[in-house]
Amino acid sequence: MVRRFSYLSHKVSVIILNWNGCEDTIECLTSLQKCDLRNIQVILIDNGSEDSSVEKVLAWANKSHVSTLDIDHKYAVNQETDFRCFHNSKLIIIKSKKNLGFAEGNNVGIRFALKVSKPDYLLLLNNDTVVDANFLKRLINAFTVFPNAGFAGPKVYYYDYFGQKNVIDSAGGKIDFWTGRAFNLMSRTIDQRDDEQYKIVDFIQGSCILLQVKVIQEIGLLDQQYFAYWEECDWCIRAKRKGYISVYVPTSMIWHKIAASNKGSKNIYWLIRNRFIFMKKNANTFQLVTFYIFFWLVHFWIQALGFLVKKETDKLSSYFKGLIEGQKIFFFRL
Known about the structure:
By secondary structure, this protein is of the alpha/beta class. It has three domains: 1-127, Spore Coat Polysaccharide Biosynthesis Protein SpsA, Chain A (Alpha-Beta Complex), CATH 3.90.550.10; 130-206 and 229-258, no CATH class; 262-332. The protein has helices at residues 22-32, 53-63, 73-76, 101-117, 135-145, 213-219, 231-241, 265-282, 285-309, 313-332; strands spanning 12-18, 40-47, 68-72, 91-96, 121-126, 129-131, 149-158, 167-170, 173-176, 181-184, 189-190, 199-201, 208-212, 245-256. Strand 3, helix 3 (73-76) and strand 4 form a beta-alpha-beta unit. The chain is globular, with a radius of gyration of 20 Å. Pfam families: Glycos_transf_2. Keywords: Glycosyltransferase, Membrane, Transferase, Transmembrane, Transmembrane helix. The chain crosses the membrane at residues 289-309. This is Glycosyltransferase 2-like domain-containing protein.
C-alpha cells in the first residue's frame, strides 16, 4: 500500500470486512502501512455500514496518500464492468447494501481478487486487528518450509487483556470431532516465547488466515450457509481432505480486539446452529453419534443452565433458536 521493500515479491490480496467499525478499520489499515506492501492490494468490503464508514475510510486514505477506488457491490460482480482502472489502486472499497456475513462478505472479496488482482496469496484479515510489521513476510515463508501448506496463521494476541498485550488468544486451533468442540490453542496464556516452532494444526482462526490461490481452485470458497462462525474450520478440513495442511506461525504476530459483542445473543445463535452444520458435513458416523450424545448429556445443560443462572434470557432465547435450526439442518437438510 505505501512503503517500498524488495523482499516481498509475491502478490497478495488482503480482504477486510467492515461493518460499522470504521475506527477499528482505520487502525488496522494504518498498521498495515508499516508492513512490506510493495505488491499488495487491500480489498475492503463494507457490509452495509450505517456509520459513514466508507466516507471516513476514504478521508483517511486521502490524508495518507493511499490510491483508492470505491465501487458498489452490484458493479463489482458485473462481468461487463471494466476493471482495468483498479489494477493500480492499493485500496479498493466494495460497498454492499446489506450485511453479507463473514463467509459471503469474504467470498465477494475473494471473487473480486481472483478476477481483477490475480494474486498468489489471499489474506483474510479482521478489521479489528493490528498487525506486526513482519507478520505477512513470516506467514508467506511458511509456504516455502511446507510445500503442502494450504493455510497459514499467526500468533494472535488479545489487543488488551486487562492491560496486558502479551496474552495469547490463539496459537492455531484444534477440533475434537467426538464432542463437536473447536477451540483455540494456548488461549488466555501469557506468551513465554519458549516455543517458536511451526506447528501443524487443525484450523487457523479466521481473524487472520493466509492461503494460496490454488487451494481455492481445489476446494472452493467459504461455505456461505454458515454466515458467521465455524466457516474457517470447515475450510481447513476441506483442504485437509485434499492433502493440504494448516500451519501455525508463532513468529508472525497480530493483536485482536476480542469484543464483548462476540458473545452477544445473535452470535450465540450462529455458534450453536453452525456447530451442527459443521459436524454433519465433516464428521463420520461414529463421531456424529458420540457428538450427539455428548451434546445432550453435557454441553446443552452447561450452556442452558448457565444462561438461566445469569438470567440472560436474550441469550437463552437465541441459543434455543439456533439449536432448533441446527437440529432441522442436522436431520433433514444438507
